[in-house]
## 1
Amino acid sequence: MELTDKPAKVRQGEELDLKLVETFLKDSIPGLGGAIAVEQFPSGYSNLTYLIRVGERELVLRRPPFGRKAKTAHDMGREYRILNALNPVFPYCPKPLVYTEDASIMGCPFYVMERIKGIILRRSLPQGLEFAPSQMRSLCENLLDVHFKLHSTDYKAIGLDGFGKPEGYVKRQVEGWSERYRAARTPDAPAFETVMQWLHDRMPPDFSKPAVIHNDYKFDNVVLDSEDPLKIVGVLDWEMATIGDPLMDLGSSLGYWVQSDDPPDSQAIGMQPTNLPGAFTRGELVKRYAEKAGIRLDNFEFYLCFGLFRLAVIAQQIYYRFYHGQTKDERFRAFIVAVHVLEKQAVRTMERSNL
């Protein structure tokens, strides 16, 4: 039974000029030959991801979304650089093959990497895949452990010193995401001012050991082995990776985490199978991370609240594109509902905190 993540027909308005792409790829990657075909992975919400088949070879092409010319969240060169640095030492990282800023090919920078084939978990498990509670628990352990391995990578040894600015990271993140939310707010979006002020007033100092952080680490950005679905073989979507505070990275990941006892509105917006029997709670994930890192995390509510707020900003930015007609992707219409739910979750987290 086919369990691997499958591409689909390219969405209207997001087509590529195959002749130009074929010429570039065959000129740039030795050994490519045969006919070219393209499909699109339909589940992403930011950078666009295509499956390129050239003969028997399968490649993945990443490019920014149409309709905007962002140089930060959609910086292809930055994403390519971190893949180059990490791939030799962090085996879950895809192997990058070529990057170009030649606008004559598709009007924007893009890069191509090897495909890591396997299972990617979405909101519901693929038909034919089941996890017993003990297996789900093991998978959650593996997910956390791979995240910690990333944070344990010596970024200076692999040439990423200067890739980010770890000093003042927490302050820049709180202030920067607050500015982004205000800029992307639409008339039907919540104010979020109480949450932003709470985060601003309670910023902890930066963690003493800055690390490579993924900034979007979650189940649907990891690839599971088709033969052994408890084994993680790949980590995808490195567009927001940097050098910064690993606790902020963990908080961002847990912003996505919906557990089985969360309220119905939170369950409704969950996009991962984190509420299945046996799955870790957010508290259990924090405890395991603290044990592996040898630290105390008594007041993790700040990082979780930040993670929920940051996720709301991402959802609002995506909804903003739909609201203003910059994309025709109908999936984005309902994102405003998620923004409202995430505000309520953030407020509940604030209320539980001792900060």
Note: The longest strand covers residues 48-54.
## 2
Amino acid sequence: MNDLYQELNFTRKLYRDILDGFTNFELSEKRVKIKHLSEKELCETNEVYLNEYNSAKKAGLLTEKDKIKILCDDKVWSEEKENEIINLNSELSLKKTTLSKLFIQSQVKNLKNEIKVIEEKLKEINKEREEILGLTVENFAFKKSNQYVIYLSLYNDDKSKMFNSVDEFGDLDESKLIGLIYVYKEFIEMFNLDNIKKLVVSPFFMNTFFLCEDNIFSYFGEPIINLSKNKIDAFSIAKNYKHYLIKSEGNPPDNYQSLEELVSWYENRPNLNSLKDKNKDKLGQSYIGATKEELMNIASNSKEEVVDLSAEAKKAGGNLSFDEILKIHGI
């Protein structure tokens, strides 16, 4: 079986679970269900965070800002490292914005590699910072709110709640607690945004989506307020992709080798449409690093003719003069 077939099997599982509202996991010969929480349920965790934050602060625990100041005064940490984190985050944000505007895959690949390097640097310095920082008001409240999210999500195989209270969940012995936390982390990774995008571009999903006329109730049969975050994310992404598809006046490729490739095709539509608008009054354009397939893709969106300069050079005996290149571009 090829990789694409395996990917489609995986996205069908995601689809089934999103529709059912639960995902099954095996833990110590016991089946555990993770519920797909609604936005309303997830908002409850913010209330937990605020309550725990205020309680910890009243109890005398230091905020992150106050503790960082003390650590810098004691020369255990430094303002330079704090500024490095700020600068790396700014650089990362800028490069991700640039990435969202690219469509030539060689450029995308290079920029993704640059982003990966920055993310590794951030990961390393943040890990060092967390180890030095220790317990603060913020990470105490964050830990408690995360614990509440997991408590809300855990169900038995018969879809009954696994725990009667968050305190009962917190009183578990460490080994059982860690096991359940890892199950939840696996669930979060399974339904990350990249995987939901792959689900949305899967033909079985997009074909049914086109029948619902952008009506979320028609698709899922529930009011938005009752829908899980995963359902809302999938529908929102599908609606955007449908808009890109219609506006581009093109069709997805039939010969895609992976769902990631298909996601890239959809997400490149706005950039190609923008390129079409910018270049509609220009006589000729060159696209450094673009493959022949990408140039054909640009042409299909801009109605321009793609000229292969290598082929034209061969016709001319191996070389093109500057005047001949201008002539090819209609100048």
Note: Residues 1-29+192-269 form one domain.
## 3
Amino acid sequence: MSAESVPQDSTRSRRGPPQSSGCRLGVLVLTLLLGFSAFAILISPPVVSAASDSNVVSYRVDGAVNYTDPGGEPFWSSIPVTDVPLVASIAPGGGHTPDVQIKSANDGYNVYVLFRWNDSQGASFESNDEVWQAPNGTIMPFDSADTATVTQLYFNATYYYQDRAALLWFLPQSLGRDQTPRMVLGSDGALSGGAAEIWHWQSNPTDDNPLDTGFPGGYTDSLGNPIYPADNLSFAEDDYTNMTGFFTVPGNFGAGAPNLVPEADPFLIHVGSLYDNASKTWTVEMVRSFTTSQTAPYCVQLTPGVSYYVAFATWNGRLGESSAYKSVSQWYTLTISNLTAAQAPAPEGGISLTVAAGVGIGMLLVGVMIGAVVRSSRKGEDK
């Protein structure tokens, strides 16, 4: 096994060194099929008291997003923060980030969600293949079935994984929510009730350096030519899961891994990402329009005055978090408000619902596998 080099620190780092992988399309398709057999989420009915109905509030603001300085826009200073506790999805491999600070704003047309969390190990842009160490010391390729017995991935000072963050929206048009969004082994990756959209940011390959072989993440036009987001912005992969399976929504990965709406723009969710070496802190700002057109059946459609059920996750790549191994939240509500922060009281912070300690975003595993494996395949083909 060859070790990847460690990214060099800078005062404010926004991207890492180019990465590459030798995966081919056949391996990709096989891995996707294995991924679909990994996890399901059981969704809990919303048992939320009046006091916690708006424990994250998206306040109305004026001003534009600055993707080169996420969180530095003047309007953020007036918006209260909600500190969201996180727990391990699988221990001891997950749970290395104890909490993430969340803020939200909107301009009447777009919603902004700001993540900020401590990562004292430093930013990671590595995208090594997930592996685990058998009791006899053998390094084994990881596949979804291994989560039944494997409690952590293999990592060391030179072999580790990329950092990630994700936001899950339970889709209000879906019905039949069951108990708790907890991990369920041996399923086909589908929800047991309802549907959800996932905004999944990855430090590699969704950074904004078009010279990086890991950028833009494997999306192509109908002729197979790589396509890039406007202004070379970072972006979040847009995923969807329901009672039949897990899918990537917009864009075209090619015939081997079709998306739900291949002709739609894969860069609907813009992201500004920044790691500050002085404070050892990641800041990730996700932005999307209230509504989408081509992808509307699979994406949350936002309306002022309405609350939505959301959950959050982060991955610390240097500490071996990737795939199913992460730090996850319980359910929160996010309310799209027409009020400014000066017009409304600050949110009270996260109040957990009737959920298990292992509550999380189980289907994100498949999103990770799709995001990483498909991109790895594309990079291998481009060489």
Note: Residues 364-382 form the longest helix (19 residues).
